[in-house]
Every structure is written in C-alpha cells, then in structure tokens.
Protein 1
Amino acid sequence: MTRFAAVYHAFGMIVMLFGLTLLAPLALSYAVNDGAQTAYDETFALTMLSGAFLWYRYRRGKRDLQIREGFLLVALVWTGLPAFAALPFVLQLGMSYHDAYFEAVAGLTATGATVIVGLDDLPMSINLWRHQMMWLGGMGLIVLAVAILPMLGIGGREMLKAELPGPMKDSKMTPRVAETAKGLWLVYIGITVLCVLAYRWGGMTWFDAVCHAFSTVSLGGFSTHDASFGHFDSPSLEWIAIAFMLFSGINYATHFLALHGRSLRPYRFDPEAPWFVGVLLGSAFLLAPYLTWEGTHGDFATSLRHSMFHVVSVATTTGYATVDYGQWPVFAGLWLLFLGSFATSAGSTGGGIKMMRAMLLYKQVYRELIRTMHPAAVYHVRLGGAVAPQSILFAVLAFGFMYMVSIVSVTLLLALTGLDALTSFSAAVACINNTGPGLGGVGPAGNYLLLNDFQTWLCSFAMLLGRLEIFTLLVVLTPAFWRR
Amino acid sequence: MERYAPVFRALGMIVMLFGLTILAPLALSHIVDDGAQTAYDEAFGLTLLSGFWLWYRYRRCARDLGIRDGFLMVVLVWSILPAFAALPLMIQLGISFTDAYFETMSGLTTTGSTVLSNLDTLPMSINLWRHQLVWVGGMGLIVLAIAILPLLGIGGRQMFKAETPGPMKDSKLTPRIAETAKGLYVVYLVVTIACVLAYRWAGMTWFDAVCHTFSTMGLGGFSTHDASFGFFDSPEIEFVSIVFMLIAGMNFGTLFLAAHARSLRPYLVDPEAGWFLAVTLFSILFVAVYLLAAETYPEFLTALRFSAFNVVSIATTTGYASTDYALWPMFAPVWMLFLSSFATSAGSTGGGIKMMRALLLYKQVYRELVRAMHPNAVVNVTVGGQVAPQSILFAVLAFGFMYMVSVVSMTLLLLFSGLDILSAFTAVVASINNTGPGLGVVGPSTTYEVLTDFQTWVCTFAMLLGRLEIFTLLVVLTPAFWRK
C-alpha cells in the first residue's frame, strides 16, 4: 500500500485538522456542562491519534499529488472524516454506528437528512457539532468544486476553469488550489457572519442563528428543531433564509470576482446564475396558484410564502421545511425534487448535476436535432462564450447517464429491500442530490430512521456518490485504478 | 406545402395499401355475420378514397425522397394510419375518437395497452382488426428500424447499417430498402405461420392462434381475452409464447442471415442477442427466487413458470400477463419494466432504447472512467468488432438523455393532471417502451380506460414518441425543420 503513501500522509494531516475542529463543540460542552464532555474528549483523542499515526507513518511519502492520488484523497476524505465525526453520536447519544455514520455523512456532504428525533432536546454541543460539520462540509465542497474536480477532470468540470467571462479574464482567479481556496473561504466566512447577524436580527437566539447560518450557507438544511424552519413561523426569517440560500446557490467564484472587482458585472457574465434564479422564481410563482387552486393553502399570499420558501429550499438542495409539503399534491413535491437535480450552479455548495451540465446537455440535444436534419453541419456547443471541446461534452453526457443510472439503481435496491415506491425513489433522489428530505416516509414530516441497516448504508453511499459527482467514487472502486 | 408534395403522394399510396388490409376483417365480418359489416364497409370506403385523393392530387410530384422528406413521411404514416384504423372501432363500438385512436396507435406501435373491456365478447372481426394492426405494425417497424432510420441517422442508427457481423459480411443484407424489406418480410411471414401452428398445437382455437400470433410476432400484447394469457392457464401455450417472443425480441436481420445460411452462427456473432438472452434468463431466475422468498408462490417450479412468462413478456415489451403480477412484491414488476427499457435488440419488433444503445452507453461510461485516470488515453468504443465513430456516440448519448427527459416530463404531466405516482410513472414507461400494461390503475388486470382524455392523449403521444425513437418526432416538431 505504500504506493499511495503520499495520499495517506496528506489524509493523516487532514484528519488532524478535522480533529481540531472538535475543539469547538468540546469547549461549548464544557462551558454549558451539557453532559457530553467525555464523548468529545474521547473523540478528540481518537481522531488526533489516528491522524497523527497516519501522518507520521507515511511521512516519507510527502510529495505533490498526481491525478490518481487526487481521486483517492478526495474519496478518503469524504468517506473517512464522517467515520470520526460519527463518534460523538455513538458515544453520547448511544446511536448505532450505521445511523451515526449516516448522520455524519449527511452533515459533511451538506445533505441534511437526519435519523435523529428530538432535535430540540439534544445537548447543545451535539447540535453545534452537527451544524458545524455541515458548514465545514460546505467549505470543502467549494474547494472541491472550484479547484479540485476541474483538475481531476470530472464530468466536464474542466470547463469551469475557463468559465470566467471574457472581460474579466485579467482578474483571473489565482490558479493554485490553496490560494483559490483562501479567496473563496473568505467570501464563505464573510457571508456566514452576515447570515448569523441577519438571523439574530430576525429573532433567533444566538445559538440558533449560528447553527442555522451554518446549515443555510452550506445549503445543508440541518436544524436544531424537529419542525425545521416551521418552528419559528416567521415570514421575515424565511425571507432571510431565502436570500442566503439563493446567494449560496450561485458560483462562489463569481461572488469572489464581484467582491474583488467591487462590481456586479461578474454576475451578468455568469452563464448559470440567471437560469438558476429564473427557474426558481418561475417555479415559485407558478406553484403558488397551483397550490391555491388545489386547495392546499387558503389564499394566494400564503401559497406564495410557502411556495417560495420550499422551492428555494429544495431546489438549492438545502432541505428546510416550514410546512409538511409531503401533504401537497404529489406533483408539487416531485417538481421540487426535480429542480434540486439541476438548478444550483457549479461552484456553489448545492447538489445535483448542476446548471452548467444541464445547459450543456440541452445544447447537445439541440445540436443533435440540427445534425439530424443536416448531417454534415458543424455545430459548436458553447457556454459563457467558450466552445466546449468534444472531451468535455462526452464527459458531461456520460455523467448525466451515470447520474440517472445511479438513481434508478438506488431506487431499485431500496424497493427490493421493502420500501414503497415513493419513499424509495424520493430517498434516492434526495440523497444523490444532497437535498435531505424526500417524500413519503422520508418526507419533511418524517426522517430516515425508518430505513433498515442496509438501506441506511445505501443512502449514505448515495449521498457520497452524489457529492463526489459519481465518477470520483466510481474511479476509486474500479479494479483498473489499483493495478500496476 | 407543395415542397412536401412527394411525401403526400407516397403517403396517399400507403394509406390506400393500408386500406386494403381492412379487407381481411371486412371479409371475416361478412362471413360470420357479427354485425360489424357496415363499420368495415364505411371504414374501407373512407380510407381508400382519402388515400386515393391524396395520391391523385400529388400524382405528378414523384421524385426521390430526401432526408427531411423521410422524417415527415415516417411521422405522418405513424400518426395518420391509426386515425383511419380507428374508424371501425368508433363506428362499431361507439367509443370516442380519443379512445379509438389510443387503441389503434397502441396496435400499430405494437404497444398493446387497451381501453377496451369485455374483449371476450367483442365481434370477431374487431378482434381480428386489433391484432392484425399489431402484426402490420411489426412489419412496418422492421423496415423502419433496419432500413429507414439508419438512413435518416436517428440516434446512432447508422451503426446498424453495418451491423452485420464480421465473417458474415459476404452474405450482407441487400442494401436497398425495398429489397431488404422483402427478405425480412419472408422471414417474418414464415415465423408467423410457424407460430400459428405452434399455438394451435398447444391447444388454442384457430382464431385465437392467429390473433395471438399476430400480437406475439409484433411483440404487441393484445389478446382476445380480458385475462390475457391467464385465460388459457396452460404451460404449453405459455412455453410456445416464450419461444416466439424471444425470437421476435432479437434482430430480424440476424434471423434472415441465419435462415439464409442455414446456420446459427449469425446469432453467435450478433452483439445484442447474447446480452438480451443473458439478461432475460438471469431476470427470470432472480424473480423466481425472489417470488419464492416472498412466498408469492409455494414452490419453485410454479414460481419459475410464472416468472418466466411474465418476465419475458414485459422484457420483450410484449405485454401479455398470465397472472396479475402487479400483486407481486413491487420490486419484481418494477424490475420487469426496467428491462423493457433496453433489453430487446435493434431490428426486432420490441421497444425501449434497445440493447445496442445500452451497450454503447455503458462502454462510453467505462471509457470515461478510464479517461478520468488517464486523461490522454485514446479509447475507442467498439460494438460487434466495429469502432463507433464520435458522431454515433454523441447521437446515442443525446438519445439516452432525451429518453429520460421524456419519461420525466410526461410523468410530471400525468401527475399534474391528477394521476397517482405509480400509475403515472409506469403508464409513461410502459407507453414509451411500447410495452403496454403498467402498474397501479393501468396494471395487467385493468385497462387504460380509467385515464381522462388528457391523460389518454399523453400516453398516445408517449407511444408514438417511443416508437419513432424520439428524435424523429422531435425533428418534425422543430421550427427549423419547416424553414426554407
């Protein structure tokens, strides 16, 4: 195994860094004396020791990582960190490991599905840990999406490297991963702070404001309350959440450019942002009359409030709920899940196939239609002014296909092991899209506790598959990867 | 419209030819005096006159058809012939045009879903007409699939022109459409006769044997009995059916080569046949074991008998049922519908995306996995020993994507109009795959009668879309097609 020594060395370091983040809930636990202190002490020690061991054992393997190693590192980080993150749940709450791992994966992949009931009565530090994990996951995601995956060439991501709009090319993003990350994290941290203040202003307690800011900006959707956002029953808080969810659904690189250049121009040139916002607003405004007409809500204003909130929440793959939209006509719930499959921008903290790929896929289809009539025509598919090379188009198409195959497979496996059709399908979609709540048994009024062990592991796998954009995980699972 | 004059002229001829096929039920009706004579007389008159008028009006516009003409031709034939075919049903049974058109579209696209009840008491000639439509539809299909669509370059079909296996190239199928069609029709006819004799030998009446042969060869699935094959409750009949469904599920071109060379070698070299049979066989065993484990049947042989028939029926997109398999544990019928999406071979009378495309799609994904690890690797995708050019790969991928988009969109449409999710989804899948029965309210023990007019039209459209392999229909609906 020393072939991948460099990877294990880097992974060890990342585990240690992650271990350090445990200090926050640990400190809180001691400060408020909520009974979880021992759990954090033990987890902290175990994590640091394991990380240190790996780092030390493979210290001679330290060098720059190559492509294949990049894949393995990404896969290890996202599957390995939850293994440690799950420990406080096991130690303090007495959860089984498969449930704890599921919760941790849901946190780090910013999915937001939960197996915990009685969120309102959890020790404060446990809630902080859940939400903080989500926030960190979002940070990791941004770097993954904007810097790492393009270098690995996953599913057409290379397109994003050149995605910067024409006139902006001089203020190009600094090329190295570390520096790119720094710039993006500043934006991410800045917006988080703003969100905390906004939630506090809107009426939340400081603790709730911090926790929900963590899960809003990361588009994760955890809450400190079983009733999710419905607990507050506050239109102003809902509108604040909507604003920040919309913000986080846009490419963070665009945000960085806008702030850096102190101008709104980057937004105009971002090829995904207008579609993202347009599709969401359009859906919200069309869904509202539908709900009114179907008698779900009494009047148009209420319908609009709920329609807007849930369209934004589910389409950005966040997963907050203010009402049980599982009770809505099933078309509405499925439409929301459908949006979550493609609406958010690449480079955001959202899930799904991403708007960029959806656009490329549609342009491809249009090209095929033209080619059907004019077989000799040469037609270039463009995005944001740049021509997409054949290799990217193939990657995106193959990605789209594997995405659908994954959903079908997970759905079939869930159905095979006993879940009903709606729950199986919506769970598969909600996990792969990293949305969180599905419909049926795993709808906003329920949770994932009803899954059996196999189904829980399957959904954990589905969340990882979606977050790592399928191919990253598949590559590492291919025999060819490990040969030679 | 003068631009497409040659198309209308050819269409006129085809309508007249189709009108001649009405003579069969017309004759039967007069012979057995089942009360439908007037209906056929009127339908025959109207069809022949319309066809004649069309032909006569454009008789001077004979010229070779170009690509765009070909598209329009195909779409017109498959949309207009059912309209004429609907006449006897409307006149004799008094059903609405919506329902009659659905029934005849179902017949001509060899789907086999029905809106009629009390099939056992229908006038004999009406049943003959229904089943004959499937058989004629199957003939049209073979030519469409093997000769026409490849020339039009739909969804990678060009690949199939050269699809004849390596060593067989000297006994290549005669290239011109007319001659190719002739060779295939001889095979089709011979197998049809064999099937009639086989059904008769197994115990059916002559009339049932002829009708069910028609719907077996076309892989349509109409029956003269409400209980479909459950009516016979005969393992021998089910066995005969399985054999002929499997034959018709494989490429008729391969069958022609095998008959021509008096050897089974063409089947061994056929890239799809092996997978089709393997997938089907595996599914039969898997479902049988699954049903046994779920205690649906008390012993293995019974489970195997019912599994074999119904799995083959649905996988080949035929749509017969020997039992109400919608009552089985849900995974089984869902798996069967999933099979119908891809199992049958191109050049068969089956539906779905076809095994050839499924193979190409998977090889594409594999190539992307390899490319992820080795970005500069040049990997060719080959099927049956031939390298698939880029243009074909793009066409197949775009086709796969549009297929899924179509399923999703039409499911959402049906949901929006009030149908429950299981019925909506399975109705769309069963229609677009030209399988026939879905699940829920459109399962094997019910009919499509329960759908509203709007829902019926959506399913009619789905059947047409699937049969014309999506792009053929889409192209004709694009504004660009009608310009210049």
Protein 2
Amino acid sequence: MRPEKVSRAAAGWMVAGEWRAHPSRVITAALAIAVGVALGFAVHLVNASALNEFSQALRTVNGDADLQVRARTPLGFPEAAYPRAARLPGVSAASPGVELAAVVGRTGGVTLIGLDVLRAAAVTPALLARPAGGQAAPGADVFDPDLIRLSPAALDASGARLGGLVEVSAAGHVARFTVAGVLEDVPEGRKIATIDIAAAQARFGQLGRLQRIDLKLAPGADPAQVAEALAAVLPADAEVASSETAVRRTDSLSRAYRVNLEMLGLVALLTGAFLVYSAQSLSVARRRPQFALLRVLGAPRRALLAQVLVEGLIVGAAGAGAGLALGLGLAEAALRLLGGDLGGGYFGDRRPALVFAPGAAAVFFGLGLAAALAGSLLPARAAARAPAAVALKTAGDVAEPPSASGAWWAAALLAAGAAAAFAPAIGGVSVMGYVSIGLVLGGGVAAMPWLARLLLGPLQRRALPWPAADLALKRLWGAPGQGALALCGIVASTSLMIAMAVMVTSFRGSVEDWLDQILPADLYLRVEGGGGFDPDLQARLAAVPGVQAVHFRRTTTLSLAVDQPPLALIAADIDRADPARDLPLIGQPHTTAPGATPVWVSEPAAWIYRLKPGQTLRLPIGPTGGAETTVAGIWRDYSRQYGAVTLATRDYVRLTGDRLRTEAAVTLAPGVAPETTVEALRAALPSPLRDRVTIIRPRQLRAVALAIFDRSFAVTYLLEAIAIIVGLAGVAATFAAQTLARTKEFGMLRHVGVLKRQIVVMLAAEGAILGAVGAVAGVVLGFAMSQVLIHVVNPQSFHWTMQTRTPWGLFVGVSAALVAASAGAALAAGRRALSADAVRAVREDW
Amino acid sequence: MSPHGPSDVPLLQIQALGKSVPGGRVLFRGLDLQLCAGEMVAITGESGVGKSTLLNLIAGLDLADAGDIRIDGVSLSALDDDSRTRVRRDRIGFVFQAFHILPHLTLAQNVALPLVLQHAPAATALARASEMLAAVGLGGRDGDAPRQLSGGELQRVAIARALSHRPGLILADEPTGNLDPETAARVLDLFERQVRDAGAAAILVTHSDVAAAAADRVLTLTPQGLVPRYAT
C-alpha cells in the first residue's frame, strides 16, 4: 500500500498552536540561524567584493593584453626578448615596458611604468593619460622623456600638481619629471605613474632591460599555443602569464586567509544548528504526550516527522532570510571600516564597493535551511519513534536508560575526525582539516551524556548532605541527555573558542620566540619605496661612532611559478659552515657539495614548492637568467606567507652584480646609547634617502609585528565572541524550556515540603553542575580541535608550523564563567518554579 | 464508516489473547471477548492487572504475544504499523482519564482533529466539530481555549472528539477518574447517551461502580482472562 499523504491542516494547526504558545523558543532558534548566516554571508561578500575590485583593477591595467611576459625578478630580462615575442605567429601587437617600484614626491608604493606610447595605445590604453578636464598640461608631448603621468591616487599622495615638477626615485636612481597628465582610467586607489620607456631605461639603470611585454593576439589565435611558443623563445628570467594566471595569482594571495575567515563564519552557523537541535529536542520532549495523542488518534509516524521538520524549515527560512539582510549590512560596514581584507593586510588600504552576489545569497540561504533541518532531524525521528502508549501516560521528564545510548555514535564521529586530520590539503586549503574539526565537535557533543554519567557517577552513588544539591545531582544522573541538550550550543561555541584561543596563543608564542631569534641586533634600518644603500654608503654607516658591526641585506622578489605570488629573495651574510647562527633553522642543515651554491628556503616556500634539503632549485637570476642552487636547509619564517629564499651575499653578488642593500642590522658598542647612534646614522644618510629610511629598535619592531598579528586575528576574536554570546543565549532559552516542562515537578516538591530557597539552590546546583560538565567537555574538545588547527590546518593552509602552548589561565577563567553563567541562567529560568502556578499545576491537566 | 444500530454482528473479536510485560510477568493469557455494535462493556480489575494494556492492544498501539484481535473482521496482527494506525484513525475513538485536550488548539480544532487526520477539508471538519460541541452542551464555544474550561467540560470535549468521526468502537480509559462524583455522573450520562445515539460499541475501563453500572456487561480482567464480575 502506498504511504499516505500527511494531513496539512492538522500539521498547520499543530505548528501554529505551538508557536503561538512559545514564540521565544522560535525567535531564539531563528536568531541563532540568522547570526550564523549573517556572519558567513558577510565574510563571503567582503571577500568577493575585494577580489572583484582587485581583478577589475588588474584587467583595467592590463587592458586588452591577452598574454603578458613578466620578469621573474625586479632586475628584469634582456630587451632582446621583445622582438622575438613581437614576431611570433599569432601576435598582432606587442607593447614593451619597464616596471619599477618607485617613490614619487612624498609617497612610496607607486608602480612606475615606462611605456612605448604608440605600442601601448593598442594594448593597454588605460595607461595613457587623458588630459584632465579636457585640457592638456602646458608643453605636453607624448614622446617627451621629461614628462610623467600619474593616476589620481598617485597625484594626490605625491603632493604634486599638474604641470609641476616631481622627484621620482626608483632602483637606486633619482630623476625629476614634469606632471603632464592624469591616468583617469586607472582604478581608484591604485598608485601608478607612466613615463617614456627610453627615459625609464636611461634614468633608472635599466638600459637593455625590460620588466614586461604586453601582447595582443590576432583573431583566432590560440592563447595556449602562443604561450607555449613564447616560453620557448624567452630567457629563464622571464615568464608568460595570461589573465587566468593573473587571477589565480590574485586568488592565491589571500585564499587561505579568506577560506579561514569563511570557515569561521560557518562556525557561527554550526553553533546555530546545535542551538536548533537543542531547542527542537527539548520541544519534542515537552510535547511527547501531544505527539502520543496524535499517534493514538491516527496520525502516521511520518506526520510527526514532517511536523518537526517543517517547524525546523520555517525557523531556518525565517532565520536565513533575516541573516541575509543582516549580512548585507555587516558587509557594507566591514568594507567601510576594515577594508577588503578585514584586517589581513592583503589588499592595502583600499575600500572596495560592495558587490551583491545572488548566487552566494542562495547558497547561504540554503545553508541556513540545512542547518535548521539538520538540527531538527534527530528530534523529529525521536518524535516519530516514541512509543505512543508509554508516552501518553508520561508527561514532561523521563528517566533515561542506565547505559548511555548513542555513545558509539560519538566514538564513530571522533574516529572519523581523527582520520580526516591525516588527509592531505585540497587545492592548497586544508579542507579535510576543517572537516576533521567539525567531526570532532559533533562527536564530542554526542558524547556529552556519556561524559555526564562518567563525571557524576562517583558523586551520585553517595547521598550528599545537602538535600537540594542531592536532588539536583539525582535528576541530572537520571537524565544526562536532557542536561546535555541544554549545553549543546554552549559546548559547541566554547570548544571552538578554546580551540582558537589555544591556536592563537601557540601562534603568538611561537612568533615571539621567532622574533627573539631573528632580531639579535640593537638597531635595524630599512629603505622604503625603492633604492638602497650603495657600497660607499654602507662603508660610511659602518664607520659611524658607536657602531660595532653592521650586517647588510638585500631583499627583492622573484617568481618561481606564474600562478603563485612572488616570493622574497634575500641576500644576507650567512656563515655557510654554521647557518644556524644566522637563520632560525628547522632541523639539521644539509652540507652542499663544493662549488654548489647553497640556498636556505623558508618553511612556507618549502611547503608551496615542495622543497627539501639536498634538492636542486633553479633561480631566475644570474648571467643566463637561471642559476642552479642547492637547498641547504629550511628556516622558520612567519612574516612571508608566500615564501622566501636566502642566499649568501657573495653568491648573490656573483650571480647578479647587484651591490645595493635595502636593510641593515646594527650592533652597538657596549655602553653606547642607542638614541645618539640613531641620530648619527641618520645624519650619515644622503638627503634624498634620509626620509625613506626607517630606523627602529628591536622592541619597536617586535611591537609592530605583534600588532599586525593581533590585527589580523581581530575578526577571528569577534566571531568567537559572537559564537559565545549566541551559545549563552541558547543555554538560557533551553533552561527556560526545560523548567517549563518541570512545573509539576516543582509543584510536587513544594507539596511535600521543600522550601522555596531549597528549590533555588537545587536549580542553581543543576545549572552549576551542568556548567562544570560543559566546561570540562568544552576545554577537552577545544584542546583536541586546537591540535588539528595547529598541526594540520595551519601547515596545510598557511604553510607554517608552531609549538603548542596551553593558556591554563584561560581554561580556568572560561570554566568559571561557564559554571556561573549556567547557574545564573538556570536560576533565572526557574523563577516560574517558585510561583503559585507550580503548586496548582499538580492538580491540573497537563 | 456509517453508524450502526445494536447488532449481533461482532464488531470486535478477541481470541486467545496473551500478553506479558518485559521481565516475563504474564498479564493475561487465553483472553476472549466479542463486542457487537451498540454494546457497552465495562472492564474492571485491580491496579496493574493490565486493563490499559488490553486497550492499547485493541487500539493497535501494541502487539500481543499470542492470539488475535479483529475489528470489523480485519486482523490487527496481520497489519503493519501504518495500517494499524489507519484502522485506529478510521474506526476507533478514545476518551482518556487525563482528557488529553491539546492546549494550543481551540475547542473546535481539538474536536475536529480526527476528521482532519482523515484528510477531511478543514471547513467540513470544523462544522462537524461545532455540531458535536453543541451535542455535549458546549455549543457556541468553538473558539475557546482549553485553559478556560473546567475538568468536566474538558472531558465533554474529549467525548465530542471521540465521536466526531463516527467510529464504530469507543475505548474509554477511566473517563471519570479525574472528576468529582457529581461531574462524573453527568459526564458518564453524556457519554452513554452519545455512544448509544451513535450506535457505536464501547469498552469502558473503570474502577468506579457507578461507571460500570452504566454498561450492558461488566467484566473483570484477571490473569486467566475476562470473567463476568461477581462470578464465583
């Protein structure tokens, strides 16, 4: 016989009646879903808007270029590559360019591009100036080598004006230009300056070198084929990029950080699901006799299942809808206040416009529904499966079986979570790490009744001398599942908070230790915005009174893969016999063969490019554009997420001939006052450089580094706090629901002579005991999850490792707060227990 | 199902019914009972002897260890849970000691519930509910909430609900157990009239001699089965 349809009228009456009677339960559950959806959606919108803006900027600047030849290092590649590229079949236009990091006027961070105007007009028209307001600057001539064009952001920041002179510093050279126009088509916030390519080569030491060639292909040409042909004719210090690889590189810039934030957003949704589960379970328990009556009157099991699921669905829809609206508002506010990277520092200070994503909205709406349905599924099955005849006679609380049922479910989830932690990353992101955390969390929550019995067992076997506390203990022992339901949401959010706190504490501690290792000097100098210390200046600085020793370094960039962000190339004074003296090595160094060029790669570089000590690494530097080196060790680096390669200064000079240095570490003579030496060092600097050199003491550098660290985790802390608040609200709501179901119990206690204050103590004791059990569960679970974050998620997503540090003070504080909050919530919810209604309830029908 | 008048055709047939409880204690064994349309039987017995269990077996809420129960010739033991539920929904009405009126529905919605569960249109079901509320002396109070009623009035609503879908069999478990004697007498009188007017059969489980006196037969449940009361 076919299953019958469920009576919609009956379901509608039951659902509407229940909600009229208990609106607060519905509102709390919907709110939990709304907060989860809002946070996840807001983070996603911010990420999408920022990436969209970044990609659009990229497209605007790259214009109609189908392919681009890029230098792998700022040193560029031989300009002989240009005619070879331009003459390839399939190429219809080619625009050569010089591209340097420059300081223009009083602002650094400007991208200076030297263009052949005629060639650029066909490929990258956005880089050609339109006269501002329709008027050209006096004497404007597109081929004039003394003229410069600035983007609006560069013009504002440099302090220059149209028609005026401005000083430009790049690659260690300084030159003056007249501002002749404004690059109106460059996106807002991008600081770009363009000059004639010949002037760029001549004035900034780039004769015979280029950093880019933009290519437009002929109609019908296959980009992949042309790219392959191009790669065959290019030198080793150049690479071929397309718009897709550019987008992938942009995406790589912040993918792990964005995914991490989105996962945290989903954490709030997960907490919402647990709250819905808790609320629905208690509601089903309270309505057990109602459901039994429906079964007796002839409703099929399916009808009860459908009713509870429909309730969950409606709560989910209401919550998800409200969440989307709230998320839009949050995203707008976040973009205005924190920028497109929510404090991560990936996209500079840009404030992108919010881009609404209907697809993402649909997905998050669906996730909200799914969370509510998932939270309703087990209670719905419980409602459908409860034996009607028994349930009809029993109202409110029931004693649970002596053995904790469902413990095997918990064990299975925990085991699956442990297994998932060993899975590799997917697409460079620790997806299985997050899955592991979810499974461990689910297993831990499922194990709560078993844990409650384990912890309360020894106490329960004795009669406590305080009757009220004894009653509380006996009740919790008899129904640990009910207690666990009350704490479901708070244990979920507490454990997540503990996990994040342990991870952040461990990370911060590891960063502090690392800073101590890498900052042994007394003063540090760094050149901002291009240029550096030439050999004469290096000698003068070393001779400043009070200076005992100076170690100079050169930091530049190089690209090892076209779809990965560039990594840092560092030339430093490394003792090849004892590199651990100069670098925070991980593991033992590898001894290279005589004649080999050793390099030491950072931990992120080793992860991203799968490098091991002893391996050969080809760097795009040197006379031939490609130098063979040997990986001699891996060092810990928390400052460069995309990796770094260090080689000895003499090897760098031998390969590149570059003698400019960008940083200096100064050791002072004993007894010398740092302030005096700082003044002397600054006085030794030539005036063009003086304003662009930062001199900083280690403790200041340390403070700046830790401030950046804290800022990047600010949003994480915010999400944790919201999850805790939602969890606490859930505790209060579920205690209220439970207490409502126990009105007759309290009335009976009052009848047999239990004093009001004893009931108060009993309720507070129940709340405190539950809070203590929840605290133990939350801390243990949280610590387990933190190990997955520390040893799986961080290495796989961010490519660094750290040592676990345990914030015992936080554990104690959180536990105490949870016990107090639970006792308070139970007490507040139990006000009804002390009312006259409770006494009357004994005589009434349910 | 159309109402029947008193008839010799057994509406309910129980043969050699046996049931034990978890732990092995035998509640009863070899229990036989036949009930015709229009007949009212009272079942008495000591507490814990299994009276409510017997009602649960007849309602299809539980399965017997031995024997057979047939309602309108249909054997319950041959049916799955959904089918037993359908039989219960279509052919049986219930009155409980604790009334079990749903607090979040109006009186009319409570009474209409069995019809709505049979997929009758809500308007039709509510019209029938209104009729039944009037029949039990609560006319015009369709929209009232249960909390506004006394115990006796709630039991009237329960009686109206039990009969709204015109079942052939009414099962009443201590229907006057929660009522004072005066109210109990009024409710019992109403119950008897309504059942007989509907031509239904009824089984009344009770400790009350007054309630038992209203029945055509009074049986006592023992471990050996149902025996006429006062049998030696």
